[in-house]
Amino acid sequence: MRRRLNLIIVAPVIVFLSVAWRIGADIQAQRESQKVSSAERLDLDSRAQKAFVIARETVAGCRQAKNGSSWNYRYNIHMDGSALVVSVAVNLVPAGGVTPMDLDKAKLTWEEGIERIWSGVFALETESGNRYPVIVDVSFRGPGFDHQVIVRPGSGRTDELNWNIQDRPELVAHEFGHMLGLYDEYEGGALAPQHGVIDPESIMASNPTRGAVAKARHYELFRQWFVRKTMMRNVRIIHEKASHE
Questions:
Q1: 31 and 62 belong to one structural domain
Q2: What is the domain count for the chain?
C-alpha cells in the first residue's frame, strides 16, 4: 500500500517537472529566435543605411564674386545606392577653324582630365562610418545640356563659357569648377565675397598645372545637399585616394 502511495505521489511530480522543462525549453528557444531576429534587423538596418537611393535633382544658381564678376552654375546630383554622383553635360560648340576631328580629340582629353581631378578623390563619411565616394561625371554628349561652351582654335584667354582647342585638361577642369559653383582661389580672381581663399596648389588657382588638385572644401555644397536629404549629423568630407591623404 505504501509503495502504491509513493508511486501515486511521485508520478504527478515527474509529469509536472517534465512539462515545466518543456515549457522552459520552448521559452529559451523563443528568446534565441528573438535574438537572431534582432541581429538580422540590425544587419538589415545597417545595409539599408549604407546603400540607398536619392532621386536626381538639378542644382542651379548664380555666383557673385568679390570683384563684381558673376556666372551661372548648374549640375545634377543624386545617390545611386553606394555613391554620390554629380553629373554635368556640356555642349561644346566649335568656332570657325576647329574641325570635328580636333574637337573629338579634345573631348577625350578634357573628359579624362576633368574626371581625374574631380571624381573619386573624396568621399562623404557618416557618423556610423559608412563611406560614399563622390563621383563626378562630365559628358559632352546630349541630348540635354547644362552648359554651352564655345571652343576656339589655338590658345588664348579661357573662361567658363569660352575654351580653346589647345587648353590643358587642368585649365578646363578649373573652368568646370565654376560650373559647380566654385570661386577662384588666387589674387585678382573671382574670389568668394567673404573669406576668399588663396591657394596656389588648388585646381581653382590661376593657370593651374598638372600638380593642381581639388580640395575637400570644394565638395562642401555636395555635403550640405546630402545632409539635407538624409537628415544625418556629423557627415564629413574625407580623402578617398591615398595620394591625397
A1: no
A2: 2
Q: Supply the DSSP symbol for 202.
A: B
The range of the structural domain enclosing residue 13 comes to 1-50
Count Cβ atoms within 10 A of the Cβ of residue 189 and give its class: 0-12 exposed, 13-18 middle, 19 or more buried.
Answer: middle
pLDDT tens per residue across span 8-36: 444 444 444 454 445 455 545 555 544 43
- Give the whole-angstrom CA distance, residue 17 versus residue 173: 80
Same domain flag for 86 and 170 = yes
Q: The C-alpha cell of 99 is what?
A: 574641325
Please check whether residue 197 is in contact with residue 191, taking contact to mean a CB–CB distance below 8 angstroms. yes
pLDDT, one tens digit per residue, over 79-91 is: 998 999 999 999 9
Domain end call among 14, 29, 50 = 50
Contact at 8 Å (CB) between 240 and 122?
Answer: yes
